[in-house]
Design goal:
Helices cover 32% and strands 19% of the residues. α17 crosses α20 and α22 packs across α23 (821-830). Residues 382-394 have a biased composition (Basic and acidic residues).
């Protein structure tokens, strides 16, 4: 029955069906040698297992999710190596031969030899889910949680290319054997095609209405099979980029593979289905089936040049005998299943000498070597026409220091000089106005009638100095401090100056009388202190007058010391500096803060703006990574700062700081919560923050019509899924990569969260917040709309198309499996 020179298949007689033939029945009819090729390895402890065959199909590499690694010659049963990594394994891949293989572990990708010795740690490949190896280019390609596609040459160790997909984390990747193009499946149903020569995808295809679960390309590069969360297996012609036909599966297919003879293997749940001639024409029934009771299928793959299908599952690994799946003839100069040790060494040297360059990877490999038939005259003419005339160079006039660092600094402090000048001129008049009848310190910040009348009575112009009117509301302590500092400034002024102008203040601060050089003004703290110590007590009045509504958002007196603890770092030369308390608790503040208490608050907060301290405006996230911050406990809690940096993302403003800097904040905050044993509080803080960000969308969808509501909902989902979700996952990536192995953290990547376990899946948390705050309030209306779509009842075509896009987002939200009433509602919408 098994042919050696041509392909042979199972042939049924009469009413028999080939898919009803089991492996046990098949082994009774075949020879003993072929029967021995089908075997089961029962490994229930460390599964589920992923695996890979060498190019000649002789060796198998097994990798259990819980760290078990083994490689062996499956035809002779000779074990090469076996060891345990004691950490999770996501993928395994052979390199150019059976002497080297790579393992995608919990954080990095590691390279091992056939004895189990670690050869390299590829630290540029972080949080990897899937790997592929291009044998003719000696390139290792990886994709993972960060969404970066990376090409690394294993012969030289150089990173050839590194491109962001900008579509979030990706777990599905396959290579086209025909042209070495990489296919990546994304969670929004899109498949992108990549080459190391271009930083953007060569092709983008929308293949499913939900996340893509698996991809497979045939050997000739004509057809691509894909499976997704919509429970469909689709066949695509990648020459015309059109769908050929599709199949349905009871549950989403988790893995696909196409043999050298065009046979399609589909793994779903605990079943494996094989379809003969399923690429060109749609088949009514499968060719063969297999059931692995109580063990879901993780990966299926055909063995090269053998009628064998290997599949890894939760309980181990199995080899199935599939007649007709293997290519009977092979080129021994290309791959040789029976090669000797000497032949293997010679082939390795020849492969390195004939290695193709990454620049030769194109969609059409036949393009290389073509002859350009255009004549030389035509090419010269086209080049002349495309050449743009050169612009005549015009020298720029020299600015002669008009934009020097000193002059830029002087421009920034010009407003400060004007404010100090105003005080110097009008201090006696202000004292007189303060004593006039009608002035009350207890008035609200928005009330300035008595102050304006007092100024008018004193001879001041309220319109000219309208921004200074609340100076009169400074409390007694601030007034006394201001009087002392003004006297100090006057004592240092020129004795001949009766009235200090703006130029005289500059001369006082920077002139020859003080012995201070303008070039060194930024390095002398005492001169800057003179300005800031004088101006700091005026902050309450200026902010009160500038924006009365802003007063309710500023912290109270108890919180000002906390912010000072965040952002101030007292100079080591200051002997009178007080020690920063190690712990200061927050207290909620009321929005109705009167003018008197607000003056006290800002007067105490003005100490933050000392030039020898880190102010709120000059503080930068890069200071978080410094050692002094951790050692001296300068920062007690970075969560408010982290929220302040991330929240503009929900308003569409984007991130103003690098993601790596925000990762440092997250690491610092998680270490603090872990030391306090408050990891659950950390997760609750994250949930509340994401929920507050989603609520800032500020849309009232219930009041809109069905058409406008669907359109607006699709816009919100597109903005959330493509802009917010990838950044949130990248920012809080340290929760999954650094801290998911803590003693009380068990479930990080899964969807089923058991009791007393902490869920650190950032993607799941974010999707649940969007579901609960946006989709669930619209459940009844969406249910009616989705019921009308199949029947085309009272719905316009544009609304039907938009609702189909919305259904794609519902399928993604249904994949979180929160096991509550809201999950049941989402499941009802997908039916």
């Amino acid at each position: 029955m098994m042919k050696s020179s041509t392909v042979g298949y199972l042939e049924a007689e009469g009413m028999e069906k080939t898919y009803k033939i089991t492996q046990s029945q098949l082994k009774e009819k075949i020879d003993l040698i072929t029967c021995q090729k089908g075997f089961d390895l029962k490994l229930p402890t460390f599964g589920p297992y992923v695996f890979d065959y060498t190019r000649n199909g002789r060796y198998i590499l097994l990798g259990g999710k819980k760290g078990h690694i083994a490689s062996f010659d499956w035809k002779s049963g000779k074990l090469s190596t076996e060891f345990h990594l004691k950490e999770s394994v996501r993928d395994v891949k052979w390199l150019h031969n059976e002497k080297l293989f790579v393992v995608a572990q919990k954080k990095y990708v590691y390279m091992y030899d056939n004895t189990g010795l670690e050869v390299h740690c590829l630290k540029r490949h972080i949080d990897i889910y899937s790997m592929e190896f291009l044998p003719y280019h000696y390139l290792l390609t990886t994709i993972g949680g960060a969404g970066y596609l990376k090409y690394q040459d294993i012969s030289t160790g150089v990173i050839v290319a590194e491109y962001p997909t900008k579509l979030g984390p990706a777990k599905v990747m396959a290579q086209n054997p025909y042209n070495s193009i990489i296919h990546i499946g994304h969670s929004n149903g899109v498949v992108t095609l990549w080459s190391p020569n271009l930083s953007t995808p060569l092709v983008k295809m929308l293949v499913h209405r939900g996340p893509v679960y698996s991809l497979a390309i045939d050997r000739e590069g004509r057809y691509m099979a894909s499976s997704g969360a919509d429970r469909q297996v689709k066949i695509w012609d990648i020459r015309s980029w059109k769908e050929v036909h599709s199949y349905f599966s009871p549950t989403p297919a988790a893995t696909l593979h196409i043999s050298d003879t065009g046979m399609l293997a589909v793994g779903w749940s605990s079943h494996v289905s094989l379809w003969k001639d399923a690429l060109q024409k749609k088949q009514n029934s499968p060719y063969m089936t297999h059931l692995s009771p109580g063990s879901f299928v993780k990966r299926v793959k055909f063995c090269p040049y053998e009628d064998i299908l290997g599949f890894g599952h939760a309980k181990g690994f199995s080899n199935l005998i599939i007649p007709g799946s293997g290519e009977p003839s092979y080129d021994a100069y290309e791959v040789n299943p029976y090669e000797t040790k000497k032949q293997r060494r010679e082939k390795e040297i020849i492969g390195l000498l004939e290695k193709l360059q990454p620049e030769m990877i194109t969609l059409d490999p036949n393009y290389i070597g073509n002859v350009d038939t255009v004549s030389l005259e035509v090419r010269e003419k086209e080049a002349l026409e495309s050449k743009q005339p050169e612009e005549k160079w015009v020298p720029k006039p020299k600015t002669r220091g008009k934009n020097s660092s000193l002059r830029r600094y002087l421009r920034t402090i010009s407003n400060t000089l004007d404010s100090v000048n105003f005080i110097f001129f009008n201090m006696p008049v202000l004292r007189k106005a303060r004593s006039l009848k009608g002035f009350s310190q207890d008035k609200e910040p928005g009330s300035h009638s008595s102050t304006s009348s007092a100024l008018s009575s004193s001879g001041l112009s309220p319109s000219k100095y309208s921004y200074q009117t609340d100076i009169l509301s400074i409390n007694d302590e601030a007034s006394q401090t201001l009087n002392v500092r003004v006297k100090a400034v006057r004592q240092r002024a020129l004795s001949t100056s009766s009235v200090l102008s703006k130029n005289s203040i500059k001369n006082l601060l920077f002139g020859k009388e003080t012995g201070v050089s303008k070039n060194k003004i930024l390095t002398i703290p005492s001169t800057i202190n003179l300005l800031t110590d004088t101006f700091a007590p005026l902050l309450p009045s200026i902010i009160n007058t500038a924006s009365p509504k802003f007063t309710s958002l500023l912290p109270t007196l108890s919180e000002s010391s906390v912010y000072k603890n965040y952002f101030s770092k007292t100079s080591k030369k200051d002997a009178n500096s007080s020690a920063i308390p190690e712990h200061i608790s927050f207290k909620p503040h009321s929005a109705n803060t009167n003018s008197h208490s607000f003056g006290h608050t800002l007067t105490s907060m003005s100490n933050m703006f000392h030039p020898l301290q880190k102010s709120l405006s000059s503080f930068d996230i890069k200071h978080i990574g410094s050692k002094d911050i951790y050692v001296n406990n300068i920062i007690d809690d970075v969560w408010p700062l982290l929220c302040m940096r991330i929240f503009p993302l929900f308003n569409g403003e984007g991130l103003l700081m690098p993601v790596e800097s925000l990762n440092n904040l997250v690491k610092f905050h998680v270490k603090k919560r872990y030391a306090e044993k408050k990891m659950r509080l950390l997760i609750e803080e994250l949930k509340r923050f994401i929920e507050a960000g989603i609520k800032c969308f500020d849309v009232n969808l219930l009041s809109l019509s069905d058409e406008k509501m669907i359109l607006r909902l699709v816009e919100l989902w597109t903005f959330f899924f493509s802009t917010i979700l990838p950044y949130i996952e990248a920012i809080f990536l340290p929760l999954q990569t650094e801290f998911d192995d803590l003693e009380w953290t068990i479930c990080t990547y899964g969807n089923d969260i058991r009791e007393n376990e902490i869920d650190l899946n950032i993607r799941r948390i974010t999707l649940i917040r969007f579901r609960d705050n946006i989709i669930i309030p619209l459940y009844e209306r969406l249910k009616v709309i989705f019921l009308k779509i199949p029947l085309n009842l009272d719905l316009e075509q544009t609304l039907t198309d938009t609702a189909s896009k919305l259904l794609q987002s519902i399928l993604i939200l249904a994949s979180v499996h929160s096991l509550d009433e809201k999950q049941k509602k989402i499941d009802n919408l997908t039916k």
